[in-house]
Amino acid sequence: MATVDLPSCSVDWCSNTIHTYRYRRGVPQLRATTSPFKVCACPALEGDSDIAGIGVITAFIAAAGLSIISTGLCLLLSRRAHGDKSHPDYALYEEAAATARAKDPDCHVLDEPPRPFNALDRFTRNWACRYAQRFVRQLNGNPTILGACFYDVVLALGDQQIVTGIAMMAAALIRIPDRDKPLSTYHFVVISDLVWFSSNAHLLALTVIRSYDDSAKPGTVERLERARRKKSAKAVRAVRAALMAWLAGLLVWASVWQGDENLYDRFQCPAACLKSSDDGKGGEPKKWMVVNIFYVVYNYPVALFMLSRRLRQWWVDRASLRIHRIAFLDDLGDRVVRGLRSVLMRVDLPAGRTLSVSAALGASIWRARPISFLIRWIPHCLWTILSSELLGFVEVVVWFSLGLWWVRGDRDYGHKLMDEAQRQTEDSWGFGQLVPWFLLVLPFMQFFESYATYSYEEACEKELKERRKI
């Protein structure tokens, strides 16, 4: 495609006629248009390798991909299938249960760990986790140690990515009103795409944090021991929650900013021009704006709730049981049926018409039972979906796939608006391209360090047990 020289404007914020591309289904269509901004001019689009360089983008994608792989392996290798006595948690549970019975003989302790509450996660553990751990043992590996190592990797990646995402979005927020070197709409959209990768990595970290070693379910080792968490751990979680809320606010702000109806017509314009546009929200950008905001509102409050062990314990011990044990629901259908029966027995029908009492009662039961079902089971079904590790993991994978499609399409479209020299500038490797890639070495270092630590601790425990036998 022949390049088009876009007329450059000084920063007088004048309105002028420029050439733009209309973005429809991935096919740019060249056309001439008049800038609809009241106070903005749209100069030629310049490349910025520190924002949209191939090294930066691939580094963010690689970090998000490592988070997905590490989370999947962590869940597979650490989760205990119901009835799997070979899992180390089974022995830990028996020891904790014996200690609890010794302290309080009247306490109710199950003979074995309870099965997972969530039906979806129970299916995954009984089929996927059991066979994955068996395969690792056949290779003379220790799935517990490997799961703990991947847990540390996920945690390190999540903390690194949330800080990086906040830093990038804050830098974009600072550069948008800069008139000397304004941030283009194209680069602002690319930054948002990269920050979504950071958000995915952090959500995956929260998935393993909330249930790996801090379970709130009755009958688990943590509940039996009633061990207090250290104040330092509480402080770290408070910091994570604050950073998470900050990132959620930035993502909502970026989504609203990019909901302009003609967003892709103004890719070369400064991002500040979107605010001064005559057009409002609409079209495909508005649809994705709604989807993005719904994703944040749907995931982040639930993740913050699940991050608090006390709130999860309140839900498991009190709220869910109270919903399930509402007394009048047990008799609601029967009361409705008895009332309708007394009414039907007194009905005088016209000549030639008959009424089947059994059919009428069946219809009344059909209408009465859903009331009990809705009030009783829908909250549990919703909580099963919201708290499921499996669905949370699949959701992040789907969002990651959408992110790949977004960042590829946005970058290709932005390069079509540049001349060849600017495209080469953006693809050049420099300081901003190499640093993100070198940071990817840290997760591997974390894995090997954790493996060495846990292996040494396991060897010490075995040696101590052998000495006790002697």
From TrEMBL:
TM segment ranges: 51-77, 238-257, 288-308, 390-407, 428-448
Cleaved signal peptide residues: none
Keywords of this entry: Membrane, Transmembrane, Transmembrane helix
Entry protein name: Uncharacterized protein
Organism from which the protein derives: Cercophora newfieldiana
